[in-house]
Structure prediction request, 334 residues.
Amino acid sequence: MKNIGIDLGTANTIIYMKGRGIVLREPSVVALDSKGRDVVAVGNAAKQMLGKTPGSIKALRPLKDGVIAEFDATAAMLRHFFKKVSGSSIFSRPKVIVCIPYGVTEVEKRAVEDVTIEAGAQSVALIEEPVAAAIGSGLRIEDARGSMIVDIGGGTTEVAVLSYGGIVFSNSIRTAGDAIDSAITSYIKRRYNVLIGEVTAETLKKSIGCAHSSYDRGIMEVRGRNIINGLPAILTLSSAEIREAMLDSIRTIIDSIKNTLENTPPELASDIYDRGIVLAGGSALIPGIDLVIARSTGIRTYVAKNPIDCVACGIGRVLEGGNVGGGAIMFRGR
Ligand code: ADP
Ligand code: MG
Prediction:
């Protein structure tokens, strides 16, 4: 039986341990020495280095758009996380279930399996991310009625329609939290000629960002660099400006939901209409995003409880052997 579940996300890695629940929640970031060989830091410690490392250290995000971009760095990161959660040696070689985005290629699936083994796992099984997210958000996916889960993460937004425990239709776009951060950076550059770092953009989004004016969150002061004279600059930004900067990305996400609804068989579409849309993933925490999605689709929209943990909790339920809809869920293992 498997004992560890991993949500290997573009932004965050979350580990669930059987019998214990979520035991690790850290950014998917690795800091390497200049030769790119030795790992200097991973997770939270590495994220703090993003954008301010000296020449001798390189902080990078080894996953991109939901898939592995840097194999060795991902393996090193996972190895470190395994060590951290296993403490002494109770299970030095865990049996792992790891999720993969729906619709990835065979080569990308292989990479996830290989990286998990390389990091020290004894065995690995894969589960489709939207299925895990749906289980983790408490949707009853095993019955015949259709449901829709929208996972808005860091690299991708995955819109999936599920029925009978499987994915009927899914749409993945590369617009999610990271794209929103870049949009904030571009907006500020365009409007003020000031360049801010990616961590600052994310902080602005989390602190004062919102998707609808009824959630206005005041102002925030940030530092950047004036691109005309090269000097440090201090700016005071308003919640309304950040909302404006985020607008296009949020529209793109809504278009993808509408597009999925248009491609959904009518019976399932009416189930979704009855049951509503469930939002998961860290970017579901943007205040008002449920409201704007509900308004533009005409369908009630809910944010799952603890949206960042949904996928890991869903894998957790599979690990604990809960009744989650039969044996069709884990589709591959070794
Ligand atoms: P992934 O599955 O791609 O690793 P997550 O589901 O962990 O992504 O979500 C990460 C994204 O959620 C990041 O872009 C992060 O900035 C965003 N995020 C996390 N918390 C908040 C918040 N409170 N408000 C807005 N965005 C948030
Ligand atoms: Mg995710």
In short: The mean pLDDT is 92. The CA atoms of residues 278 and 302 lie 5 Å apart. Residues 7, 9, 151, 153, 281, 311 surround magnesium ion (ligand 2) (CB under 6 Å).
